Amino acid sequence: MDNVFIIFQTNEETRNIVEAILQDNPEATVNEQPAMVRIDVPGRLTIRRESVEEKMGRDFDLQELHLNLISLGGNINETDDEFSLSWKH
Amino acid sequence: MHLDLRTVSIKPLRQTFDRVAARIGGDKPASRYQEATLDVQSDANFHYRPLWDHEHELYDASRTAVKMVDWYAFKDPRQFYYGTYTLARARMQETAEGDFDFVEERGLASKYPSAAKELALEVLLPLRHVEWGGNMNNTSICAYGYGAAITQPCIFQAMDHLGMAQYLTRTGLLLGDVEDLDSAKQAWLADAKWQPLRHYVEDTFVLQDWFELLVAQSLVLDGLLYPLVYQHFDNALSEQAGPVVSMLTRFQSEWYAEHSKWVNATLKTAVGESAANRQLISQWTKSWRDRALTALAPVAALALGEKAGAVMAELHEEFNARAVKFGLTL
Fold this sequence. Notes:
The structure holds two protein chains of two kinds. By secondary structure, chain A is α+β, with helices and mostly antiparallel strands. Chain A has helices spanning 12-24, 49-56, and strands at 3-9, 29-33, 36-42, 44-48, 69-73, 75-78, 82-86. Chain A has a single domain (3-86), classed as Monooxygenase component MmoB/DmpM (Phenol Hydroxylase P2 Protein). Chain B is an all-alpha fold. Chain B is 70% helix and 0% strand. Chain B has 14 helices and no strands. Chain B is globular and about 80 Å long. The mean pLDDT of chain B is 94. Classes of the chains: A alpha+beta, B mainly alpha.
């Protein structure tokens, strides 16, 4: 299994994050469940701060992800501008 | 007894309003901003034309020479609707109130060097009247404009200008007294230094084309006045006498940074729509920019002394560079 995944609670904030993920990761698949949303991507999942900010219309700190995070699978690589998951580290 | 727990997934019958779904490509969850903005203004069945303007419908896109295929192509990058706007301003106001309290409690205003205080009062207080002009103009754009996507942020800006006029008043009362407000009004009405700017502001009051008004007010006047006063003059005062006035005008400088994002996005959309729009808006920008530069020159001279010329040249250059970025030809 080479898939990485991330699961958020469903709310106003995470909808923007999910949209940004879908925009930046064309191979992502979304699985919407009651009150949560799961995104699977083969290989590598990237969340870019800039894309999220554009969707949200405000400044965004990638640490804010954790407020709505339920679970994730993959090794994390995190900078101020990018949060990525993969199995390569 | 055996209990069987299971999850039942209830699918909502619809995710959003039809008018929003039609614009965002299908029935999917929409943001509050989209729901509070897209197609909110009525565009049909107006019945009678207004008595005060029988040439136009109540909401009529032909009140400006700018043409848009879709007036909802505008998007506020801050995504302000009533809720987010008030929250954002409440946060800024809390900081501003904190700053005012700080200055007041420590008696910083009375310890402020008197030469710098005089200068600050002389430059900042007449700007109350400019802010009021901004309030009038943005309200006018909101009244005659077309499409909630562009009129909505304008009424917010109108309130912002009113708020900033009040902050300037309070700065005046903190550094000086009621007489200073009166003499600032006299300066605004009679002092030769302020007359060109007053002439500019009063001429914008009677502009019929609301998009031209938006260019003259939000792009040109705000775009030159705010950097002049709240960056250059502010720096000059801080160097001379410390950062007290910077604290009292923090709202304005933060507001300007945020406001220009909206102006840039709005003009980029309008200018990118067609060559005719680009030409028209470029022409407006050019003529209002030249007027504004002349009108602000005596204010700059008052505020910055001999550095005024160099600063105005720098502002002129920065303004052009910014305008070229969203496709204007100057």
